[in-house]
Design goal:
By secondary structure, this protein is an alpha+beta fold. 72% of the residues lie in helices and 11% in strands. β3 and β4 form a beta hairpin. The model has no long low-confidence stretch (mean pLDDT 88).
Length: 199
């Protein structure tokens, strides 16, 4: 049976509606695909950005750890050097104190030649040194001091020092104990030892 005008019109509207729905569906799929691609590209870019940030942060942490490690090594090295220098100084003082009497008193004579002043002074020794003083020490020392216009006599009282001596000229007292002499030149001694031990 042939279609009537109303049926044809209805069929045409349905066809047009179907085509339009298909076009809307196609455009929606294209838009969805575009949105999906843009979202994937944005996610990939953000992922790369996060990876780069993480790498930069890790590199910074590694550099900080390396710097801290290097500083700790330097601190340990400095502490070790300082301990070695202090031990070397203590050992040198111990060896001076343990010298045989003849050598020990020769060192004292050499020091007295360096620190004696013109005129007459009193040389005060520790109790231990006063007890083991060679009988000819004062005469030998004064013979050496004669050219400097200096003379010393050995004090009857002992000085409260461990080693070396005190030189007294009236109210002036020169402390020539090993510890005092070392203290006076400690930085120079440490510098010299540092150069010698760690050069």
């Amino acid at each position: 049976m042939p279609m009537t005008g109303l049926e044809e019109m209805k069929a045409a509207i349905e066809e047009e509606s179907r085509l339009e729905c298909a076009e809307i569906g196609r455009r929606a799929q294209e838009q969805a695909a575009t949105i999906r691609e843009e979202a994937q590209a944005a996610a990939a870019a953000r992922y790369q950005e996060m990876v780069l940030d993480a790498r930069r942060e890790c590199a910074g942490e590694l550099q900080r750890a390396k710097t801290e490690g290097e500083m700790e090594v330097k601190r340990l090295l400095l502490r070790t050097k300082t301990e070695l220098i202090d031990e070397t100084i203590a050992m040198a003082l111990r060896r001076l104190r343990e010298l045989p009497d003849g050598d020990y008193f020769n060192v004292l004579q050499t020091l007295a030649l360096s620190y004696a002043r013109k005129g007459e002074g009193e040389l005060l020794l520790s109790q231990r040194d006063l007890q083991r003083l060679p009988a000819d020490f004062a005469d030998t020392l004064n013979g050496m001091l004669k050219n400097q216009g200096a003379q010393v006599h050995i004090g009857a009282q002992y000085a409260k020092i461990a080693d070396g001596f005190l030189l007294a000229y009236g109210d002036i007292e020169v402390n020539c104990s090993f510890e005092a002499l070392l203290e006076a030149s400690l930085e120079q001694v440490k510098d010299a030892l540092s150069r010698e031990l760690f050069a």
